[in-house]
User: Which sequence fits this backbone?
């Protein structure tokens, strides 16, 4: 019986992913999800109390993984140690690319289909999170180079712009390609190009 229930739950989740991917959270309906699962709306409610709970079930794990990756992306990094930077790029890049390949649909739903849900604005939150680490590196660089925390431009908008450009690059890749091999190759090159630029300031 448990196996059967797990199969039904998985079928509901897969149908919901397709529905949310095509229509976004606001325009998706439990009726359409039920139709895609060949079950009834009432049966879905036995597994998920409402559409929001189903949406959260799909996106909570990927959101947590992204936040953990951003928060701990440079825990082992020593300023000026380029071998550590290369290792960081390789290790964290591999984690990010694996996440992108494994959860492409969930990431696209999170970024472009979450309007009207608790995940609305998550992209800006993640960019802000990444920009804090970027800001720290910029301040460290400017302090070493001219004894001031300010550089040629204000640090906050520069850090945010860099973080935003990185996210836009990654999500442009996965939005325009569903080929895992292509995503991996292009994603690794994007990560290398982005982070190698930090070698001069770390």
Assistant:
């Amino acid at each position: 019986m448990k196996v059967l229930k797990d199969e039904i739950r998985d079928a509901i989740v897969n149908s919901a992913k397709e529905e949310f991917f095509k229509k976004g959270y606001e325009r998706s309906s439990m009726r359409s999800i039920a139709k895609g699962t060949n079950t009834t709306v009432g049966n879905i409610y036995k597994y998920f109390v409402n559409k929001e709970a189903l949406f959260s079930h799909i996106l909570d794990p990927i959101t947590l993984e992204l936040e953990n990756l951003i928060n701990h992306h440079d825990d082992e990094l020593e300023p000026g140690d380029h071998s550590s930077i290369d290792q960081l790029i390789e290790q964290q890049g591999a984690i990010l690319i694996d996440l992108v390949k494994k959860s492409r649909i969930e990431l696209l739903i999170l970024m472009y289909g979450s309007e009207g849900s608790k995940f609305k604005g998550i992209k800006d939150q993640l960019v802000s999170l990444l920009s804090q680490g970027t800001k720290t590196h910029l301040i460290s660089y400017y302090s070493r180079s001219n004894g001031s925390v300010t550089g040629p431009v204000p640090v906050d908008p520069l850090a945010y712009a860099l973080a935003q450009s990185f996210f836009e690059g990654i999500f442009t890749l996965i939005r325009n390609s569903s080929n895992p091999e292509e995503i991996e190759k292009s994603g690794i090159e994007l990560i290398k190009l982005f982070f190698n630029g930090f070698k001069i300031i770390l």
